[in-house]
Structure formats: C-alpha cells, structure tokens
Amino acid sequence: MEMPFDAFSEATDEALLVLFANGDRAAARVLTERLAPLAFRLASRLLGDPAEAEDVAQEAMLRVWRIAADWRQGEAKVSTWLYTVVRNLCMDRLRKRKTPDVALDSVPEPADNAPGAVQQMTEAARAEALQEALHQLPDRQREAVVLRHLEGLANPEIARILDISTEAVESLTARGKRALKAILAGRREELGYDDE
Amino acid sequence: MTMNDFRSDDDFDLDAVFKAAQRQAPKPAVDLLARIEADALSAQEEIQKARAAIPRRSGFRGLLPAFGGWLGMAGLAASVVIGIGIGFWQPVDLGLGTSQAGADVLEEPFFLSFEDALAEG
Q1: Which of A143, A174, B6, B38 has a 20 to 30 A CA-CA distance from A168?
Q2: Using the beta-carbon criterion (under 8 Å), do B25 and A150 form an inter-chain contact?
Q3: Cβ-based contacts of B4 with chain A (< 8 Å)
C-alpha cells in the first residue's frame, strides 16, 4: 500500500528507506527532496564546482537507493551515512585533480576592487568569498569547517563521518577557522569592511 | 553584520559570514532532482524484482532458517532428548547424607491434606 505524500512529513529517513525498499514511490520522492539537497550542498562546498557536485550528488543518492533493501535500522542515521558517501566521493575527485593544497603563505593578495564595490557587495558575494577561502584550506580542515559551521552538524557526528576522534574534529575546526579569518581579514578591503 | 565588523583578524566575525553562506546555500537544479528520482524508481523496481525472484519456502523448510538451519535443528532436537532423559532419570544417592536429611524433612507432609485443613479450621 502506498502512503499519501503528506503523511511522510514526520517520518524519519530510516522509516522512509524501509517504505522505499517495499516499493513505495512516494517515499522515493520524499527521500529525494530531503536528501538530494544535502548531498548537492556538501559536494558543492567541498568541490567548488557545481557540475561535479551534481555528479557526486546523483552517485551518492544512487548508493542510497541501492542500500535501501539491506539498510540496518538503528545502526546509523541515513543523513550521516550520506554525508560520509558524499565526502568520500568528493575526496576521490579531489585526488584525481592532483592539485596540491595551496599553502596559506602562497595565496596571492587579492586585487583591489574598484571604488564603490562595497555598496555592490551582496550577501551572495560574501558567501562566494567564503567559498573561495574554504578552498585554500587543507582538505580535512575544509571538511570539518563545512560540516560544523555550514551544515551545522555536532562534533561527534562529524567525527563519525571523517572517521577521527571528536578532539581531532575540534582541533581541525579551530585551525580551519583561524585560517579562514586570516584569509578573509586579508580581503577586508575587497569585501568592503574597512571602508570607513 | 555591519561594514565595521572586521577590524582585525581576532574580531573578524566569521559566524556572520557562515550565516551568510548558509542563507546562500547551493541548491540542486530541478533537472538533477528529476534524474535522482528516476534513479530511485528504477532502483526500486530492481529491488522488487529481486525480492520476487527469491523462492518462497513453506512448511517445515520455511521454518528451518528461523532455527539456524539443519545444524540448529539438530542441536534443538538433542537438547529436547537430553532434557526428557534428565527428567526421567532416578536421582542417585551420592552418600553425602543429603538424601537422608531430605528424607527427615519429608517425613512431615509438605502440604496439609484436605481433611487436616478442615480439622484445623
């Protein structure tokens, strides 16, 4: 029997996965709407390339569908599992790019923007500046900062995803934030924060 | 976040930047969601086909896996036989005086007879 679409709003991802495996098409749609944005968002932030992020999100979701029939209830959250899959797929792609992490010292000073840019600087542009800054961080720091401060996950969950200790997560996020501050503070003028 | 939030590295309000980035989170295109949902329905069909292909077992053979297969069933049967045997086996006096002590105790009936109960009121 197929449940009505609205009835799923309170259902957990795990329950929906069982319904999906039992042939419920509405569960497939709800899970897509819940999980695909998460997969795409994380992939975009880790890869910085929307086209690649789409491929990763689709691949990660395909793995969700394939594991549905064998999913063990109560062992892990579907979202945590998905974050792990997305993260691993992103790391594979980043390794294939073979571009070493850029050391902070070697980051060139940003060019001065034309006067009046401050006024035009939108929230979107600031978000873009953060995205650029994130890509100057070492992979692990970027992952930890994105999961903690953009995805809003708790440290123990991040520790499971990255397969490290909670203390290591705390250390990575702290170092990542310090590095981001250094990068973005260096772009203070460009971002229009030192105008007055 | 005001324009003067970031005077130095230390007072750089990174949280404000994070919040801006959260509000500007990248969202999947409708095409992508459609592709993912199509994958889902196709995977769902495969699951149903795979389940339908598994032969259903009935009766004793259907119950067998629940007992751990033939090996589990053999263990269960052996336990039943041993249990019945222990139940019927006459206890042996080990000469430790325990059986006599038990006998003394049992000289007094453990339960009152119906007549005794009536007599005691």
Answers
A1: B6
A2: yes
A3: 193, 196
ipTM over 0.85: no
Decide: pTM greater than 0.80.
no
Contact of A69 with A58, CB cutoff 8 Å: no
pLDDT at B120: 64
* DSSP conformation letters of A45-114: HHH--HHHHHHHHHHHHHHHHHHGGG--TTTS-HHHHHHHHHHHHHHHHHHHHTPPPPPGGGSPPPPPPP
Inspect the interface and report whether the beta carbons of A126 and B21 lie closer than 8 Å: yes
Which residues of chain A carry a pLDDT beneath 70?
1-6, 98-122, 188-196
Nearest to A84 by CA among A189, A162, A2, A173: A162
Of all residues in chain A, the one with the smallest CA distance to B35 is A58
What is the DSSP annotation of chain B?
--TTS-SSSTT--HHHHHHHHHHT-----HHHHHHHHHHHHHHHHHHHHHHHHSPPP-HHHHHGGGGTHHHHHHHHHHHHHHHHHHHHSPPPP-SSSHHHHHHHHHHS-SS--HHHHHHH-
Q: Does residue B88 have a pLDDT over 60?
A: yes
